[in-house]
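Task card 7
Instruction: Convert sequence to structure tokens.
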Amino acid sequence: MTTFNDTGYDPAAFTLIGFPGLEHVHIWIGFPMCFLYMIALFGNCVILYIIQVESSLHEPMYLFLAMLAAIDILLSTSTMPKILILLWFDVMEISFHSCLIQMFFIHCLSAIESTVLLAMAFDRYIAICNPLRHSSILTNPRIALIGLISVIRGLMLIGPIPFLIKRLPFCHSKVLSHPFCVHQDVMKLACADTKPNIVYGLFVILFIMGVDSLLISLSYAKILKTVCRLSRKESLKAFNTCISHVLAVFIFYVPLIGLSVVHRFRNGSSTTIHVVMGDIYLFVPPVLNPIVYGIKTSKIRLKIIRLFWNPSA
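Output:
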């Protein structure tokens, strides 16, 4: 049962929501959700393993892909086990501090992933627009530094969010509209002025996702300008090196935008839409990214074929 502490109105627990109206089939919904989780874990672990053991893949493009795979594993693992417990065992409560921790990991990992996608766009820009300097610009130490900066950026910008939630009193409904904790959802349950949360949340969205998506767009505008000067054969070859990353960008940003729109028009949309959009945002990218790169990237595709169908090659 939800209680209040002695120093304020922080709830002892929030109530997570599964699939409204489908509670009688939650146990069956859990199986495809678990299957998606297994695909995400397996696919991303395969990507990490192949990049680690194949020295020919120790290049900027694939090292950034390894970072992306690691982030996807952590992001899905931070949410899916709790969701499966909810669906299979009807355990709907999550403690206040566990909710804050989960919220931090979801937003921090999303911010890091956005930065890595930007770094991958920069890699494609250098590889196509300035290929002679590609290896001298994106050295392994610089790639490691970019990875470290992406982590520090995520920690610094997302770090204040749990503290902004911690200061709020919660004295009414404690039922969330997702099977996991995100800032926008928890914030709307507070019975106090949430303007600082709104302002800071908007700043983070604009500074991370807004700036990153703008710079990614500018990178591809430069790439298109360069590609248009090449021959048809060279243009197709250049586009083929970019298509996997372009798909990864759309897979990440489209569900994110959709979830933001759903939260903005919360009163006019059903709870089921919130749940579905939230699940798409968190679980579709980790599942699709390794599939996209496994199919569209010839080097990885060949290594996967050799790993599973011709292990002695």
